[in-house]
Please model this.
Amino acid sequence: MNTTTLDLTSQLYNPRFDPLVDQRVGHAMAYAPTYWVASAGSPPPNDGPITHDIEADVVIVGGGFTGLAAALFLAREHGIKATLLEANQSAWGCTSRNGGQGQNASGRLYRSQWIERWGLDVAKRLDAEIRNGFETFKSLVAEIDCDAQDHGHLYVAHRDKKMAFLSNEAKVMREIFGYKTRMLSRSQLQEEFCHDQEACGALYEPEGVGVHPLKLAFGYQRLARSLGAKIHTGSPVIRWSQRDGKHCLETPGGKVYAKVVGLATGAYGGQSLTPHLRNRVMPILSNSMVTRVLTEAELAEVAVKKPAFITDTRTLRFYYRLLPDRRMQIGSRSAVHGA
Model:
């Protein structure tokens, strides 16, 4: 594995940091020591910490996928050169710690469940919005070297009784939403995709792209800065006030005055930054690991013919895929308490 030593920080990574409890979000904290960080290469240039008071039309707080994409599209589509404030490093939070699976989906509910819960009209409008977002994601992936694996997505049935549910879902996606989903038997799954010994079959959807998430985020940053956006890392917002229609965001190095502020902190904004964030965040535990490079014998055993990424039908789902460097990535959700 090609790795790059990252000496970017004034503060070590703190694995005990808890955004629901801690009052501060950190200051130039190091990346978590993950596979994504070790294999992403050198981070692109940024504009460094805020060192004096400045003014900006638009300020974005948070430098993950959401914040970087906002800065990019404000510049690309509206000519607005935003100033982005990131407490630690670009893509420091969930952006550099996820499974890298780009799905044409939203949340935990399937499309048939959207219809049951909200009706067909709302379901179709939701699908249109998600489909548009997924196409935008694919267009960005096409611009950026991020180890993309455009081979679709497999929902595998971990029990026989789940096949009927998946079969109905495939029908809904085909007949109502116009997708080219199809059902695969166990033997078809093994013949076309991989030898998943636990799977009883699968729903296959062509809409699915696996990526290296940190390489993708670094690409967002390069594109945004090339269009005039300013990316200030090591610049946590420690106080936020408003007076005479103007926002004042205080950082350790200076105040940033803004006409408009966009929040893109995800779970890492801190409960005290603004009332808009208070009691709006809940913990979701997610785990992901990557194996060593598989041997030829191990590759033959799993027999991956087409590296679609996979999730299963458990309530706390497992997900896995073969990465381009012949490592297996495996992840799952977990309970957040002992009950």
